[in-house]
Fold:
Amino acid sequence: MVRRIAGVYVVTDRFINPSRSHVDIAKAAVAGGACAVQLRDKEATTRQLLEWARAIRDLTFRTETLFIVNDRVDIALAADADGVHLGDDDMPVPVARRLLGAGKIIGRSVANEDEAIRAVAEGADYVSIGSVFATSTKPDAGEPVGVEMVRRVRKVLPPDYPLVAIGGITLQNAVAVFEAGADAVAVVSAVVCADDPVEAVKQLKQLWLKVRGEKR
Structure:
């Protein structure tokens, strides 16, 4: 069971703020205390992705921040990332597990309870529900599922199974998402476009700590 995915999960993006690279964003994630950073770039070449992945692996090595690669099992293997995150059109979870082995993390994007139950059965280590709110960073995200879906998915998952929520999450709405049962919030623009990305991660983490404390 993946217990460390709790708090702030930063997803990189080099397009919404071209002044910050994938590596810059990863640095901010580590410095701010994010639980994970995901390298996501659907337009880069394999060589570019591998170069960034290796740099981010060096940054995150022996820190509390896990390094996850979006989509690309080959890049995750080549860079010795902590794991991979898979969507509907990516490699099936069982196949990815055979390639990655038992020691690596596999996350799976889901949109509802049925998909979440299936992902658990297939061996995913965590699921990501979204898009919770409207977002411009993932054009194919579909209609927002809302905070209520976060709550519904939480109810069908094992008690300690990590649930990540993604899509349009900001400092203003993160508390509602945590209170609905998300163990972590995955954020893009809330960090990438922040004046101080390190501080943005820290503030989101403080919100998580506050809600977690209230639940105890």
About this structure: Residues 7-215 form a domain with the TIM Barrel fold (CATH 3.20.20.70). Strands lie at 7-11, 36-39, 66-70, 83-86, 105-110, 126-130, 163-166, 184-187.
